[in-house]
Structure formats: C-alpha cells, structure tokens
Amino acid sequence: MSTILSIQNLRKSYAGGFDALKGVNLDIEEGEIIALLGPNGAGKTTLISTVCGITMPTSGTVTVAGFDILSNYREARSLIGLVPQEIALEPFEKVINTVRFSRGLFGKQRKDSAVEDILKRLSLWDKRDNQIRELSGGMKRRVLIAKALAHEPRVLFLDEPTAGVDVELRKDMWEIVEQLRTDGVTTILTTHYIEEAEAIADRIGVISKGDILLVEDKNKLMARMGKKQLDVQLTSQINAVPDALAAYDLTLGDDGWTLIYSYDVNAERTGITMLLNDVQKAGLQLKDVVTRQSSLEDIFVSLVNQPEAAQ
Amino acid sequence: MNWTAIRAIYVFEMARFFRTIAQSLISPVLSTSLYFVVFGAAIGSRIDQVEGVSYGAFIVPGLIMLTVMTQGISNASFGIYFPKFIGTIYELLSAPVSFLEIVMGYVGAAATKAMFIGIIILITSFFFVDIQIQNPAAMVAFLVLTCISFALFGFIIGIWAGNFEQLQLVPLLIITPLVFLGGSFYSISMLPPVWQTISMFNPVVYLISGFRWAFFGIQDVPIVTSLLAIGLFTSLCLGAVWWIFKTGWRIRQ
Ligand SMILES: Nc1ncnc2c1ncn2[C@@H]1O[C@H](COP(=O)(O)OP(=O)(O)O)[C@@H](O)[C@H]1O
Ligand SMILES: [Mg+2]
C-alpha cells in the first residue's frame, strides 16, 4: 500500500494565538478507513480544514498523493472531497444542480451519468429536483456527501458525519463508507462516538488538545491496550477472598458468588491456569468462567486522561 | 486557468438570478418608469431642453448608470456574502480554484445581471422618450466597463461585510448620493461654480458624462477624462482584490 496523505509537523495557531494543532504527524494509506477520535475542541475540524484549504497552516507540510497542499493546491485539492461538520447548503437550489455545481467547481466536465450514479447510491435520485430546503436533515447530509463525491475524489473527509443523526441513518452512513472502500476511496472520518470508530475504521487515531496521541490498527490497539477480566463464578457464596488467593489481587463480586480477576492479554503469562488450580485447591467449586474485554471507550478515556499511556 | 470552475460558478449564480427574474426586473423597471414620470414629465415640462437634448432623453443615460451601478454592487456583494453567511464558502475554499477564478465567476455573473437590467432599462425608456444613440460601440463599452468595475467593487464589499447591515450600508450611504449628485438628472454646467468644483471630486460624474457622450455627443468633462476615471476606478478595485487574494483577508484564517 502507498501513502496517499502525509501530514508532517502540522501546526495551526488561530489569530487569537490559540494553538489548535501542535505539530501533528499522520500518514494515511491509500484505501483505508481511519477514524480520528477525540473530544470536542480536540482540533479535529481544524486538522481537516487545514488539509482541505479552508484555513492556512501556521507551519508544517501536507501532501496528497505527493502534491503539496500549498504549492500544488490544484492537484492536491482535486483529489479530496470534504463533508463538513455543519450542514451548509443553498436552500433554494435543486439537489441535482448543487451536485453538478460541485463537480464543475472541482474542474470536472459535466457528466450526467456520473452525477446520476452518485445520487442513486445515496438514495437521492428521487429527490433530485427538490429544493434543498424541502429535505430532512438526514437527506441534507446525503446531499453534502453527494457534493463531496461529485468530482470522484480519492480521499474523502467526513467531519462528524453522524453527529446528531438517528440510529437508522448512522447505519446507512456506515454502509456508504463501506461501499466507498470497495471503490478504493480512502476515508478519514472524525467522531466522538467510540462505537462508530469501532464499527467502521481500520485504524484509529486518538486526538486530544491539538496532539495525535496515537494511531494504531483498531484490533491491535484494543489488544495492546486492552485489559481482560475473568469472572470466576462459584457454586457457593463466600464472604471474603481466601488467603490462599491473596497473590492474585482478586475482588469479590455478585454478593460473594463471583471472584473477579483482571489481567493483561499481552502478558506472557496471564496466570489463568494457576489461578484456576489455586481456586480448586482453596476448596472452592467452579460453576462457570467468563472473560470480558474492556471496550475502546475505556481505552480512550484512559488515553485522554494520561497521554503517556500511549507509549 | 480552471475555466470549468469559472463556468460552474457563473452558471450557478445566473441560476439564482433567473429563479427570481420577476423580482430582479420588476423593481428597477418600476422605479425607472417612476423617474420618467416624476423627473421627465413634471420637471421636464419646465426645463424643456439641456444642451439641445430633450430633458426626458437627457436623463436616460444617468438612469441606466444609476441602476447598473447599484445592481452591480448589490449582486456581487450579495453573491459572495451569501456563501459566507450560510457557510457554503467552505466548498469554494476547498476547491482547486484560484482566487482570481472565484472573482471571475462571481463578478462575471454580477456584471452580466447588471448589464441585463441596464439593457431592460434602456428598452423601457424607449417607451417614454425618443432616443438616438450616436455612438453605440462607445455606449456598450462604457456600460460593460461600468458593470464590471462596480461588480468588482461590490465583490470587495461582500468580502468585507460582517453582517447584512454593512452589506446594505455602503450602497445606501455612498453610492446612492454619489450617483444622484453625479449629474444623472442635470448637467454639471447647470450648477453654481462652487458646486461644479465639488462635483469634480465625484467619480460618478465622469462615468455619467462619458456614457451620456456616447448617447448624445454632449459632455460635462472631456471623454478622455471619463475613460481615465473608469480605468482608474477599475484598477483600484483590481488592486484591492489582488491584495485580498495575497493576504486572505476575511476569507482564510
Ligand atoms: N476560527 C477559530 N478561531 C479561534 N479558535 C478556534 C477557531 N476554530 C476553532 N477554534 C478553537 O480550536 C480548538 C479546536 O477546535 P475544532 O478543531 O473545531 O475541534 P473539534 O472539531 O475537535 O471539536 C477549539 O478550542 C476551538 O475553540
Ligand atoms: Mg469539529
């Protein structure tokens, strides 16, 4: 795979002196879906705006397929489609005209079959002659996506595509992104919903206070950072952890019916076999054992609270 | 030069115009007709002739200029202010277009609209007065240049404006008085000497004088001066646009 987007030491200070990006480095591979996860005000929109040309970088370089976003802005921007966070559309214009406009604005010759294809894929074909103001919020978001795709970009930015969107539409949105992947479109989406990143991304970047704390393969991230928990359910109730098991740092749960053991999945020895042996030796009868993995949410919260955990 | 993009902006802006064609035309045509009735019929019956031209015909070039200038400014300023206001400017900023191309699309469309309305006014005036245009080529050239330069000026106002009040304030407070005091309805030579001198500082005087010369061959100032004045005004606007482009003023943070 080749790198389609490369961001190096990107800094952005707003006019008031506020440092919204503090030296971001990020390489994105062609064809992947990457989710930038971060709380409000982390700098997600600023990062996207800077790459897309809406704000000027204070320093650093960004290249898209090798084209610098400043010195080769025409080539770079032709490859990018942007779906902004806020819905912004001409209320009195027809759906199909705004999509045609976007295509032309990005320098592509008018091609009705391409526009038709995009509108159909986004379930907007029936609405093509409607004025934008007649559409529901969800439909407007689709129009924004259609506009962003109108010039057949290779990289698509989706800035919080599902913020304030109902469950149904969110699922649709995920499907659209998945479909774009089969066309080879690289997608960078920002979100503060962890389940969204978990559901559709190949890689996850965590951004907080203008810094990217880490970028990692989603599954590896969960495995690396993940703590697992083993619940040992007993056939009889106990009121304290037996002294023989003190070394395992267990807690008692479920009113004394369960022993809870936390371990690191990455450790060479998880200690599970020994624990189960010792439980039996302590004279306890096992009813069942259950393991649970901590969610991305736990990982995220711990990262944002203590960034050094990323290393 | 990304001509496809310029055309896309132009077509999109013109679509906005044609969507509201009735409003776009009714108001200027109606107000022009009123000017003819009030100034042409009421005052004209007392003034009779100005430098050999019937008063009704004399005011036609000024009326067209008045309309074209205000239309050029309001169309272009609104055209670029509206995307800023509703947020669709993000698309212009993220598109592979240069600032020059954005200017050409918006100013081109605004100038076309102003031109269109100016021609409608001219046609309307044929119903009220008898006019012969002595130098049609010069008339068209003046009209086109005025449309473009005032659309450029409007574009700058649209970029500068932070709210709708500011958007309307400039045309209202600056342009309307300048145009009314620019000899639309009278010849500068009809004024007392002091006011004649003051009028020479009003750039609109030169435009109307030149435009009127194309119609009737009469002028308040030499035609060369008129051409220099409109050239200067266009250059100033182009300079300002260039500066905006260089600094990203009020567009890119
Ligand atoms: N135009 C601006 N001027 C000054 N500060 C801004 C501007 N836009 C955003 N910021 C600040 O930059 C920080 C990052 O904002 P943003 O990129 O919108 O975050 P996110 O999209 O992650 O919620 C915030 O603290 C915000 O207040
Ligand atoms: Mg944001």
Can you describe this structure?
The complex is a heterodimer of chains A (311) and B (253). With 311 residues, chain A is α/β, with parallel strands linked by helices. Chain A folds into two domains: 3-222, 3-Layer(aba) Sandwich (Rossmann fold); 227-293, Alpha-Beta Plaits. Chain A has helices at residues 44-52, 73-78, 95-105, 112-121, 137-149, 167-182, 194-200, 218-225, 272-281, 296-305, and strands spanning 3-13, 19-29, 33-37, 59-64, 67-68, 80-83, 155-159, 186-191, 203-208, 211-217, 227-234, 251-253, 258-264, 286-293. A six-stranded mixed sheet of chain A has the order 6-7-8-3-9-10, sandwiched between helices. Chain A has a four-stranded antiparallel sheet with strand order 2-1-4-5. A four-stranded antiparallel sheet of chain A has the order 12-13-11-14. In chain A, helix 3 (95-105) runs parallel beside helix 5 (137-149). Chain A is elongated and about 80 Å long. Chain B has 253 residues and is an all-alpha fold. Chain B has one domain. Chain B has a two-stranded antiparallel ribbon with strand order 1-2. In chain B, strand 1 (49-50) and strand 2 form a beta hairpin. The interface between A and B is medium-sized, with 35 and 25 residues. Bound molecules: adenosine-5'-diphosphate (ADP) and magnesium ion (MG). Residues 14, 16, 18, 20, 38, 40-46 of chain A line the site of adenosine-5'-diphosphate.
